[in-house]
């Protein structure tokens, strides 16, 4: 099961030994708890805008977060279920390393993007979206663009590059998605999705769950990223099954009663009262309903990746993810690869510094840009 789940469409594999576990104590110091409050996008990106594109006699609106004013554009595509905010911490880091511009977008059906047909998540449709957004942003003469995609976004990045939807494409960076492993994981994907909480009592609770479950191992990134993954429930609190799923979203933390000065029993009563006062939160996208598109994202991905003529970088959380085609391609020097251990599937969130360093080195080596003055 571990091998099947470790490269899924949307979240990290379960925590490794020694990682964050349910019920483990997660103190930052004596008597102190971690801060799971949300962080604003504006702490990491310079601007946020909605970009309108024409699509089959209708207008679709894509949410875009940007930073930087000169240099090549890094176009960032998130994984399934995530949003552009998953790139927030990485963006702040990479902009301190190299001269570049960053554009992170919410893909269709995700985040705050609004499209007429949000259920069409085919690789072909999403790849066309990328081209339309680039054209809307830059017109007929776009600047040099390097596409970086994680998981599902990595697959869409490859489809976009292969279909030549971005004519000024400079390079391609794919993070932790490999055809062989992804295809193997599809069989157990629905079970994985069913194992997640359906609702959370608050955004803070969702952030806490994401960290303690191992979905995102970097607390700072979770605090900005999870805001883009959940939304207020539309169903009323009295709906069947809601109260049960609230508790599923809360991973109880072992606590010393002396430290907290209140019993767990009393705290649970207070938590229940708080839940009644607030709106519940649920996932922004129901990924289980996108199953018909999963195979299309990943089937043939390795050969498609290798066929792209631009310089390519593959970043993985473990060397065991390489399939046969990529192993041969790597031996032939068709792309550059780097393994970043001690990361979950959300590599760019768990280790934004390491991903930024790898990408900066790759881009400077290919003379796409230069390091910022004083770095490294």
Molecular structure report:
The chain has 376 residues and is of the alpha/beta class. Helix content is 36%, strand content 17%. The chain has 16 helices and 13 strands. The chain has an eight-stranded mixed β-sheet with strand order 3-4-6-5-7-8-12-13, sandwiched between helices. It has a three-stranded antiparallel β-sheet with strand order 9-11-10. The protein has a two-stranded antiparallel sheet with strand order 1-2. Strand 5, helix 2 and strand 6 form a beta-alpha-beta unit. The radius of gyration is 21 Å and the shape is globular. The chain starts with a helix and ends in an 11-residue tail after the last helix. The N terminus is likely disordered.
Principal-axis shape: globular
Report the span from N to C terminus: 41 Å
Percent range of helical residues: 25-40%
Overall number of strands: 13
Beta-strand content estimate: 15-25%
Main pleated-sheet profile: 8 strands, mixed
SSE run: HEEEEEHEHEHEHHEHHEHHHEHHEHEHH
Q: Mean of the pLDDT scores?
A: 84
Q: For the CA atoms, what is the radius of gyration?
A: 21 Å
Regions with little confidence, pLDDT below 50 for 5+ residues: 1-31, 237-248, 250-264, 272-277
Write the layout of secondary structure elements.
Elements: H1 2-5, E1 27-29, E2 32-33, E3 47-55, E4 58-67, E5 73-77, H2 88-94, E6 101-105, H3 123-138, E7 145-150, H4 152-162, E8 169-175, H5 179-185, H6 189-194, E9 199-200, H7 203-212, H8 219-225, E10 230-232, H9 242-248, H10 257-260, H11 264-277, E11 281-283, H12 291-298, H13 301-307, E12 312-316, H14 324-331, E13 336-339, H15 347-350, H16 352-365
Parallel strand pairs: 5-6, 5-7, 7-8, 8-12, 12-13
Antiparallel strand pairs: 1-2, 3-4, 4-6, 9-11, 10-11
